[in-house]
């Protein structure tokens, strides 16, 4: 069974009963960049594709302004693959139940750069640290993550694009953070 089938067949938590479809990923699996979001939203559950809701569209627009395109340049996934009811935050037990899927994605893809969007995806890789402490800093996941990998991707913590929907001045901060992609990949 391949990873997409595993995710589609997963019944490790109650979220599968509340969603239409688990959303495994989208974008180029062979790219150097992986973006991790927390969970699908209602519209994404309906369309069976991540990043199609307002904040996802904003992030896609920012990345395109920086000349990064989903089909070629990056890969998008969520910590939990099923939409939590009422678009609530994923619970710790749901994250634990879905985490083997994400680790398999990371291990199979072997990205050079992992961009985490907000606290859930960041704390999945770096527990007990706040995103504000790590914003503007790059680090290797194998140096601090509890999961041992056979490679060392760089991690970049970025504010969730929904922040910019409520506070438009944050869009430039997110764009500035994402503009570091080139800098990170050139150091590799």
Automatic annotation (TrEMBL):
The keyword DNA damage applies. It catalyses: Hydrolyzes single-stranded DNA or mismatched double-stranded DNA and polynucleotides, releasing free uracil. It is an enzyme of class 3 (hydrolase). It holds the Pfam family UDG. SMART domains: UDG, UreE_C. Keywords: 4Fe-4S, DNA damage, DNA repair, Hydrolase, Iron, Iron-sulfur, Metal-binding. Gene3D superfamilies: Uracil-DNA glycosylase-like domain (3.40.470.10). Its EC number is 3.2.2.27. Residues 24-179 form the Uracil-DNA glycosylase-like domain. Belongs to the uracil-DNA glycosylase (UDG) superfamily. Type 4 (UDGa) family. This is Type-4 uracil-DNA glycosylase. It comes from uncultured bacterium.
């Amino acid at each position: 069974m391949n990873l997409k089938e595993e995710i589609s067949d997963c019944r490790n938590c109650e979220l599968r009963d509340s969603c239409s479809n688990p959303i495994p990923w989208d974008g180029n699996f062979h790219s150097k960049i992986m973006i991790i979001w927390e969970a699908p939203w209602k519209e994404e559950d309906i369309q069976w594709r991540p990043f199609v809701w307002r904040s996802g569209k904003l992030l896609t627009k920012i990345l395109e302004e920086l000349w990064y395109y989903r089909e070629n340049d990056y890969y998008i996934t969520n910590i939990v693959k099923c939409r939590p009811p009422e678009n609530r935050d994923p619970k710790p037990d749901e994250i634990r139940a879905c985490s083997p899927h994400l680790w398999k994605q990371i291990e199979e893809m072997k990205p050079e750069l992992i961009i985490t969007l907000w606290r859930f995806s960041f704390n999945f890789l770096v527990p007990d640290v706040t995103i504000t402490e790590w914003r503007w800093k790059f680090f290797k996941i194998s140096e601090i993550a509890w999961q041992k990998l056979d490679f060392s991707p760089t991690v970049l913590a970025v504010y969730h694009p929904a922040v910019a929907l409520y506070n438009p001045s944050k869009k430039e901060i997110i764009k500035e953070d994402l503009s570091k992609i080139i800098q990170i990949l050139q150091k590799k």
